[in-house]
Amino acid sequence: MTVTRTQRKAEIAAVLLTAAGHLSCHILPIPRHVFIPVVVGLWGLYAVYRGGISNRNFAAAWRPLAIFGVISIVAMAAVGGIMGTFTLQWHLWVALAVYPIWGVIQQYLVQDIVARNLKDLNWNPMHVTLMTAALFGLIHLPFGVLMAATFVLGLVFTPHYLRYGNVPVLGLWHGWLGTFLYYWVLGRDPLAFLG
Q: What phi-psi label fits residue 51: left (phi over 0), alpha (psi between -120 and 50 degrees) or beta?
C-alpha cells in the first residue's frame, strides 16, 4: 500500500486524537472499559486495512528485548519485595495474558504509525525517538512513575522498532513489563478498570 505524505500526517493526527481521548478518560466521564476495547477494535481494523501488523524478524527482534525485559522484571520484583507489593496472585497471570493485546495496539500506534511515518517524512531517527518517547510518556499523565517508565520504554522501543520493524514483540514486552510495573511497583491491578 502506497502511503502519501498527507495520509502519513493524517495518521499521526489520528493517533494524537486517540491519545487525547485516552487522557480525557481521566477528566470526562468516558469509561476506560469502553474506550480501550473501542480503540483496540477500530485501530485493529485499520491495521488490517493498512496491511496488517508486521511480525517480520521475530527471533532477531526478540533477543535484545528479552535481555532488557528480564533485567527490568528482576528489578521490579526487587522493588516489589522491598515495598511489600510483590505478588503472584492469579489476577497477575490473567493480566500477563490480556495486557499484551492493548500493548500491541499501543505499539502499533506509537511505532508503526507515528515513528515510521516520521521517519518516512525524513525526520532524524534521534528526533523520532525523542518524539515517540515523549508521546508515550505524556499519554500516561498524570501518573509520574508511569510517565517516566514509559518515556524510558519509548527510548528503548523506538530504535528497536526502527531497526527490526516488529510490533508484536514490542507489544508482548509492553504488556508484560506494564503488568509487573503495575503490580510490583505501583501496587495496582492494571485490569481493575474491567471490573
A: left
Residue 166: strand, helix, or coil: coil
Entry field: residues in the chain: 195
Three cell numbers at 143? Answer: 501518573
Tally of CB atoms within 10 A around 96: 17
Half-sphere exposure of 186 (CA within 13 A, CB side): 17
Residue 54 predicted with pLDDT over 90: no
Closest CA to 23 of 35, 37, 14: 35
User: Is there a cis peptide before residue 142, judged by omega within 30 degrees of 0?
Assistant: yes
**Residue 89: all three cell numbers together:** 496472585
Measured CA to CA, the distance from residue 59 to residue 36 in angstroms comes to 29
Give per-residue pLDDT as tens, 108-142: 999 999 999 999 999 999 999 999 999 999 998 88
Those residues whose C-beta lies under 8 Å from the C-beta of residue 162, and which sit 6 or more positions away, are 115, 119, 125, 128, 129
Number of C-alpha atoms within 13 angstroms, CB side, residue 153? 29
DSSP-assigned states of every residue in 3-70 = --HHHHHHHHHHHHHHHHHHHHTTTSS--HHHHHHHHHHHHHHHHHHHT----TTHHHHHHHHHHHHH
